[in-house]
Design goal:
This protein is α/β, with parallel strands linked by helices. Helix content is about 40%, strand content about 15%. Strands 1-2-3-4-5-6-8-9 form an 8-stranded parallel barrel, surrounded by 5 helices. Helix 6 packs parallel to helix 8 and helix 11 runs parallel beside helix 12. The protein is globular and about 55 Å long. Bound molecules: alpha-D-galactopyranose. The site of alpha-D-galactopyranose (GLA) has 6 residues, from loops.
């Protein structure tokens, strides 16, 4: 098995925790990588509302249990992901349009997860609530039928059942000045309203067109840090294509990999500069054979977005972030 002698979690031990999101199969197929490099893990999909609760009275904990047990057996702290996300709003909940009905069901779900997975150290409570477009908040079932304060309600419920565990707001495009302003505005409102939020998750899904934005990345980390909350980079990957590219390509070129390496190197340089602000950096998916970007935004387009290739060998970008 191709695991390098250099271990990311050791390289970064004086900086921040290093993590990866994992699925139920990865714990077998990518066990060596996971055990060698990461000291925080995130449950990639298995704990999402829609997956755990296929029907109102049906629970499917099988995949989540496997990941939880794996993390426990190996002593690796686990993040829970997530409670409230428009993309994982269970279909059976769509018939409910009353504030009380929805909040009761959310509480039941949070309580069940908190009791079953009591050692999860951090939960993404609300994911992607802020709009990318002109609107302030994203128009979701939660916003429409619970109301503007559904975030406050979700954090209250999470705190009620999770006690002193970390509870996060998580979002993407977090370095974009307009989106950043909205995220900060909403988190400030949460704090003003007394919501028990403990941190912000910066997803950090980057693409090859990220080049010009390093100053914004720095500025963003500084702005988020002013909120006085914990900051984690929660879902980092660097796509081999610009976000706008929706074409099918045979395979990525050497130039694309080179650019990806530069982006990883530069971003980690920034993360290290802000080591006092950043608590953890988690990669989304642990190797190129399992990255979600192999099927998004183009189904079946190979996209080696991670640090390890399809044979689980460390890539240039791996060495680039270890060499400082
Ligand atoms: C978002 C979500 C994650 C995951 C990724 C891509 O960023 O927060 O749960 O679905 O997209 O897979």
């Amino acid at each position: 098995m191709a695991v390098t002698e250099i271990k990311l979690k050791d390289v970064y031990k004086d900086y921040f925790k290093i993590g990866a999101s994992i699925g139920e199969n990865d714990i077998k197929t990518h066990k060596d990588i996971i055990l060698a490099h990461f000291n925080t893990l995130t449950c990639e999909n298995a704990m999402k509302f829609g997956n755990v609760r296929p029907a109102e009275d049906e629970y499917d904990f099988a995949a989540a249990d496997k990941i939880y047990d794996f993390a426990e057996e190996n002593g690796i702290p686990l993040r829970g992901h997530n409670f409230v996300w428009h993309q994982e709003f269970p279909e059976w909940m769509e018939k409910y349009t009353g504030r009380k009905q929805l909040l009761e069901r959310l509480e039941k779900h949070i309580k069940a997860m908190a009791e079953r997975y009591e050692n999860i150290y951090c939960w993404d409570v609300v994911n992607e609530a802020v709009s990318d477009g002109e609107d302030y908040m994203r128009n979701t079932h939660w916003l429409a039928y619970v109301g503007d304060d559904y975030l406050e309600q979700a954090f209250e419920l999470a705190h009620k059942h999770l006690g002193d565990k970390l509870i996060f707001y998580n979002d993407y495009n977090e370095f974009d000045p307009q989106k950043r302003a909205k995220i900060i505005k909403r988190v400030k409102q949460l704090l003003k309203n007394g919501a028990p939020i403990s941190g912000i998750g910066l997803q950090c899904h980057l693409g090859l067109n990220f080049d010009a934005n390093y100053d914004e990345a720095r500025r963003s980390i500084e702005e988020y840090a002013k909120l006085g909350l914990k900051i984690q980079v929660t879902e980092m990957d660097v796509s081999l294509y610009p976000y706008e590219d929706r074409e099918m390509h045979e395979k990525p070129t050497f130039e694309q990999y080179k650019k990806q390496t530069d982006i990883y190197r530069n971003m980690f340089k920034i993360f290290r500069e802000y080591k006092d602000e950043i608590d953890a950096v988690t990669f989304w998916c642990c190797a190129d054979d399992v990255t979600w970007l192999n099927n998004f935004p183009v189904e079946g387009r190979k996209n080696g977005a991670t640090l390890f290739d399809e044979d689980h060998m460390p890539k240039e970008c791996f060495y680039a972030i270890c060499d400082f």
